Prior knowledge:
The chain is built from six helices and seven strands.
Amino acid sequence: MQKTKQKIGSSKAVVIIPEIYGINQYIKDWAEIFIGHGYDSFCMNLSRRDHVYRYSESNEAYRDFKVEVGFDRYEEIALSIEELKNSYKKIIVFGSSVGATIAWRLAENHNCDGMIGFYGSRIRDYLEVNPVCPCLLVFPEQEESFDIQSIIPKLAQKEKVELFVFPGKHGFADPYGYDFNEQSGKKALDMVKYFLREIEQSEKI
């Protein structure tokens, strides 16, 4: 699997799993955010093709994701993480949308030291996952495909999961998308920064 690398020579890394659109500017912005917090960044190219879809091509992008990628791609990413573990003391996994669901499935992997997922709506299909690392899950109040409140109680019962629901729709944190909600996006980013500080503090205990 191809990885887009941005390295600053850190002892910790983040593996970023993109949405159906590929490694677009939104994903690149997340890479810069993590670099700013001292993480080497690895963006995973889920597609076999080096292609970035426009938001107006969402139907085509999702169809290609189902045909070419699928949620079982987490197994391949797990192998990449295992390889990275030889070079890094700490590895965080970040995913957005379908990437968040893949990241959620990786939360049972002992090579992962933390997991962050933004609006992983298909997590509802994998509620049996029991994370072995701290997880931050961020959801919108409004999801077209299901009622978010139907899964919140089940996720809240899991010991290592912190979750937050913010006003807005799927994609509310993406300033390039149709459903950007500036206030909710800022609050969600604050939660990510807080979560990373918690991870850092756990190293010192």
